[in-house]
Amino acid sequence: MPPAAPAGGLPWRPVSRDIEQWFAEQQGREQRRADACRLKQWFATEAEARAHALMQRTQYGEQRHAYRCPVCDGWHLARARPDA
Ligand SMILES: [Zn+2]
Fold it and tell me: Which of 24, 74, 81, 82 has the highest Cβ tally under 10 A?
């Protein structure tokens, strides 16, 4: 038997709470992305980022790829996926 709706409960209330939770999650995600951005090396151009990636591969054997950052509009280096 399905649980009965709470007497006198406002039907829009749970929906509103869901939106608040969703909003908080989105903000948290943005914050984590911004943190990751600040911690990373920043490059103004793709060429610069790629040159640095190449240098790291030559020096440390680390596979990196340059990607455009949606947060700061610059370029960062990401670790290549292990399975890539
Ligand atoms: Zn960034």
Answer: 74
Going by pLDDT thresholds of 50, 70 and 90, the confidence category of residue 35 is: confident
- pLDDT surpassing 60 at residue 53: yes
Q: Give me ligand 1 centre to Cα 69, in Å.
A: 4
Look at residues 62, 61, 68 and name the one whose alpha carbon lies nearest to residue 81.
62
Structural domain including 53 reads 42-84
- CA 22 / ligand 1 centre spacing (Å): 24
- Residue 2 counted as domain residue: no
Q: Is 62 domain-assigned?
A: yes
What global pTM score does this model have?
A: 0.58
